[in-house]
Amino acid sequence: MKFFIDTANLDQIREAQALGILDGVTTNPSLMAKEGIKGKDAILKHYIDICNIVDGPVSAEVISTEFEGMIAEADVLASLHDNIVVKIPMTKDGIKAIRYLSDKGIRTNCTLVFSAGQAILAAKAGATYVSPFIGRIDDSSVDGLDLIDQIVSIYQIHGFETKVLAASIRNTLHIVKCAELGADVVTSPLASILGLLYHPLTDIGLAKFIEDSKKMGL
Ligand code: G3P
Question: Buried b vs exposed e over 196-207: b needs ≥16 C-beta within 10 Å?
Fold first, then answer.
């Protein structure tokens, strides 16, 4: 399973990269705005900065909602760097754009996916990745992990090549469960990635080893 970080914060991306476990990055307009980036040139430069930190797929999202606007933006984004994957929302125009870009050899990530039906359409259109939003589904009192299970099964049965990229990850359990369910990728905030490190028995055990090592005059 690939590990992506879900942020546009360069320090957090560097921190995850330094761990040696990072395979890629996902961003969205909300995450970019959170970094205080303003203006088209600054946005494009920020994507290049991210691509220069991580040698893997970097999802950059289009803002347009119409087909023509989406593909024009996608051309600009894809030409920035080989790592760029164009993120397209799950809409009628979005599906058309994914088909068009897929036929042109431009990689896409179909975002804002909340149902198996939407995931089937994304795969049929040739999306490289499909992004079901687990946390936001959980927020509506429905288990988002069930959707990951359903999409993974459907893609396996039918041999769809689209990768299941579990998004809207809120905690370490989401990551572990996605691994069990066979998601191809999880994209997580840094806190959830770092949360995987922690176990109280590790801390207790390490403290004891350090204490005992002192008895040997080390
Ligand atoms: O990047 C898309 C997705 O991961 C957003 O997550 O936490 O805003 O629901 P969240």
Answer: eeeeeeeeeeee
Q: What is the pLDDT of residues 172-204, one digit of tens each?
A: 999 999 999 999 999 999 999 999 999 999 999
Q: How confident is the model over 68-82, as pLDDT tens digits?
A: 999 999 999 999 999
In this structure, the residue with its CA closest to atom 5 of ligand 1 is: 168
DSSP 27: -
- Beta strand 84-89 with 108-113: parallel, antiparallel or unpaired? parallel
Count of residues for the chain?
218
pTM over 0.70: yes
Question: For ligand 1, what atom is nearest to the CA of residue 28?
Answer: 1
CA 209/CA 175 separation, integer angstroms = 30
CA separation (Å) from 26 to 65, 86, 141, 209?
19, 10, 25, 39
Whole-number Å distance between alpha carbons of 64 and 89 = 9
Nearest alpha carbon, ligand 1 atom 4: 168
